[in-house]
Design goal:
Blueprint lengths: L1 H28 L4 H13 L11 H10 L6 H13 L13 H36 L4 H14 L3 H12 L23 H39 L2 H8 L4 H13 L1 H5 L1 H10 L2 H6 L5 H10 L3 H29 L7
Helix pairs in contact: 1-15, 5-8, 5-12, 5-15, 6-8, 7-8, 8-10, 12-15, 14-15
Length: about 325
Amino acid sequence: MLQYIARRILLMIPTLFGITIVVFFIIQSSPGGPVEMALQKLSEGEMGGVSSDTVISQEVLDDLKKQFGFDKPIHIRYFLWLKDVVQLEFGNSIVYDMPVYDVIVSKFPVSVQFGFASLFLTYLFCIPLGVAKAARDKSRFDYITSFVIFLAHSTPGFVLGILLIVFFGGGSFYNFFPIGGMHSSNYETLSAGAQLLDRIHHAILPVLCYMVSHIAVITMLMKNSLIGELSKDYIKTAKAKGVSQFWVTYKHALRNALIPIATGIGTIFKLVFTGSLLVETVFNLDGIGLLSYTSVIKRDYPVIMASVCLHSVLIMLGNIASDVALVLVDPRIDYQ
């Protein structure tokens, strides 16, 4: 298994290399880059905020290109960028005027906190619910819960966030939960236990919005997988030998039914670190999702490339995590 993981990690290198080549050439060739934005600001400043056909001297244009590194051919710029990345140097953010590493690290805790909480609670809630639905297949409980979870699944996370704010965040009805930020203004003065409760209080509504898009998929996958296992011959044989329904379900069938759940963990893994743009916007959370969107809009090329590297690595690590989880659930699988 360790050799397999090592091979997969080594294969990440050429994959990441190919991804960065494509993205770098696309964003560096697209119009509206930092040079054009700087020229626009310069022109508006000279004309008192009114755009015009002001002629910018070639010397100023050359200085701007040199400042942003556009005085070299695109393939040279890529290899210079790659040389810095190998040394874990992503350059300085054009927008924030600070190292890209520091910018990402400052946003990271938000996405990690809500991502891990949503990942853990989603599986904690969906697996027992899926098992209960399989045990009561086609019952009133099954129909009612299916209606509720599919209704939740059809509601976008940001829409649910707006509704939760209106009803429970002091919008028009109740003021049960705080809106915005990860903790209260007096957070530093609280005790350790009170700080934990304060963070949980702030996280409840955003975490619900993170979870809503995955609940139906995982629950129904768990239910259908368990129903499929319960209909197999080895389960019928166990029942014929007098094994109880409870023992058959939770000892024999459940572990095999978890295999499809384990293979899908990598899909949610990326959300743990990359966040959700719309949810972060609704709840005023300054996380990685909002940072990635802002960097694209403002053409912050160093942050864009760092975000692409981060997202790509997390997706590939998520795939490896799925394989590892699959082995833990089903020891019969042996990657060579």
